Amino acid sequence: MKKYKIYDVSLFVMSLIVGLLFAPLEVDSTKFLMVFTIYIIFSTIFSTLRIKQGSGNVNYNYGISYSQSLVLFAGPFGLLIYEFVFGFAVYFHRKLTKTADPDEFTDTLFNIGSFVLYHTVGFLFFISLYPYAQAIPFGYFLLFIGTAIIISWQANILLIIAFYLSGNINSWSEVVTLFKGRSIFTTGKVALINAFLYYFVMEDQWEMVIVSF
What we know:
Low-confidence stretches: 53-60
Number of helices: 8
Distance between the termini: 39 Å
Strand content: under 5%
């Protein structure tokens, strides 16, 4: 098996271990199913609207991720369930529509594993600083933005490793291009959308959750 495929599988296995460490779910099962269903429906629809980003040999698809709000609501175990179902829903959709890449299966494992791992780090960062952020004006939103930046940097690092192992990164300029592909404004947008989603989910404002999507 090629190095980058071993890397993808390793990330997936690590995410299973990390997610299961936070089992079982500590939220109401009925509410989780409701949130899970809404997130899956909209995320699956939006997966067809992802933007291709990159230069030269370094290319990847990106879209707005809602995992930051979901992991705060359901914890890493809940996120693992969501990413697993969403990841393979996208995988089978691409297989059926014949738009899958040759390495679609291991790419799916990479997406599931990486999302669970770096959002778990974001989850721990957020909950550890949340009591202090409450005492600061706009601390709630600032903490979301700070967490999103940390998540974004982790995502870039894991992508760089994947591209290096697959031979798709050959220079520092390509590394710089990848990092520049996600602007602070894009990160801020993702953070604010997740901040509103998390607030509306916790307050059971379901109409506002749907409007936010």
